[in-house]
Design goal:
Blueprint (H helix, E strand, L loop, with lengths): L10 E18 L5 E21 L2 E7 L13 H13 L4 E8 L9 H16 L5 H12 L3 H6 L2 E5 L4 E4 L6 E7 L6 H14 L14 H9 L2 H5 L3 E2 L2 H7 L3 H10 L4 E4 L6 E5 L2 H13 L3 E7 L5 E2 L1
Parallel strand pairs: 1-8, 3-4
Antiparallel strand pairs: 1-2, 1-12, 2-4, 2-5, 5-6, 7-10, 7-11, 9-10
This protein binds adenosine-5'-triphosphate.
The site of adenosine-5'-triphosphate (ATP) has 22 residues, from helix 1 and helix 2.
Length: about 300
């Protein structure tokens, strides 16, 4: 792949965290992954990443969230993304990545995926690769199920592992209050618990079908109708996350009794997300949840995917 334009010296990219406003989990596939259908929304809680030329590949991570579980070696998803771009274009040098994290780690908001998407965009710009959306999306899906969405942003439907994306129309803005929780939840652990719960209750479960996002969710998003969306938010991982973290139940109950239109566990948790009627209602809810000793943030969506600043 030829290098086609003048490389930059230092590139800054911003990438959003995500909420799954609807998440249906189907059967385990032959590759060990579950078939899912997800309605993603990118929200205004961002990861910032700077990339600068270096002889080797390295990453440093700071930020406003607990960083204990973030690796700074080759396991870091952003570093793996950078290496993938280098391999794709035959770039012989390295890169130093500096990440400032605001998305809770292992929180179910796709922070690592956002870092990976940011690194793809940053290295593409830094090395003047001009890979284009299709190629970047292809690299993204090799890095993880949520990376393509962090690249695309906005509101989208994901099927397969969640990485087969199509953009969804969404009008206006949705105001959310998110509550972060101490300690993360491992996504494989949560899927494992879901499988165990389903096994225990095998007789209660309807015949498996290919997961799909309900039409009512798409209508509510298209209409920009938070009340209608609140009736339809759903997360099949929620029961499993609550079984691993029973303390989240009290958070959901408090948020819903304090004015949220709906409360939901975000992805595999343990972050919880509350949909509100608008910015003022969100602010009020944020105050109530903060007064209870929790860490609550007001975010809105949809916002752009990973982009150079
Ligand atoms: P998802 O909802 O996509 O499953 P998550 O939001 O629950 O993800 P992440 O914050 O993306 O979780 O991180 C999951 C794990 O990935 C972490 O525990 C960490 O060990 C590993 N990891 C690798 N690279 C990163 C990174 N850049 N930032 C955060 N975690 C990373």
């Amino acid at each position: 792949m030829p290098v086609t334009s003048q490389p930059e010296q230092r590139v800054r990219v911003r990438a959003p965290g995500k909420l799954n406003v609807f998440f249906e989990v189907g059967d385990v596939q032959d590759d060990g992954y579950h078939d899912v259908a997800s309605a993603y929304q990118a929200v205004s809680l961002y990861e910032d990443l700077w990339a600068e030329p270096a002889r080797d590949f390295s990453v440093s991570v700071t930020g406003s969230v607990d960083l204990d579980a973030v690796p700074e070696d080759d396991r870091n998803l952003a570093l793996r993304a950078a290496r993938l771009v280098a391999a794709q274009i035959g770039h012989t040098g390295g890169v130093h990545l500096e990440i400032v994290k605001h998305v809770p780690v292992a929180g179910g908001m796709g922070g690592g995926s956002a870092d990976a998407a940011a690194a793809l965009v940053a290295c593409d710009a830094l090395w003047g690769a001009e890979l284009g959306t299709v190629q970047l999306q292809r690299l993204a899906s090799r890095l993880g199920a949520d990376v393509p969405f962090a690249l695309m942003g906005g509101t989208a439907i994901g099927t397969g592992r969640g990485d087969q994306l199509s953009p969804a129309l969404a009008k206006g803005r949705f105001d959310w209050v998110i509550v972060t929780a101490n300690g993360g939840l491992s996504t494989p652990d949560v899927y494992g618990r879901l499988d165990a719960l389903r096994q225990d209750h095998a007789f209660d479960i309807a015949p498996a079908r290919t997961p799909e996002v309900e039409a009512g969710v798409l209508h509510a998003l298209r209409a920009g109708d938070a009340t209608a969306l609140a009736h339809r938010v759903r997360n099949d991982l929620q029961a499993a996350a609550l079984s691993l973290r029973p303390d989240l139940r009290a958070t959901l109950e408090l948020g819903e009794s304090a004015g949220a239109l709906a409360g939901i566990v975000s992805g595999s948790g343990p972050t919880t997300a509350f949909l509100t009627a608008g910015p003022e209602e969100a602010l009020e809810l944020q105050v109530t949840l903060t007064a209870s000793g929790r860490t609550a943030l007001h975010v809105h969506g949809p916002v752009r995917g990973a982009h150079v600043i």
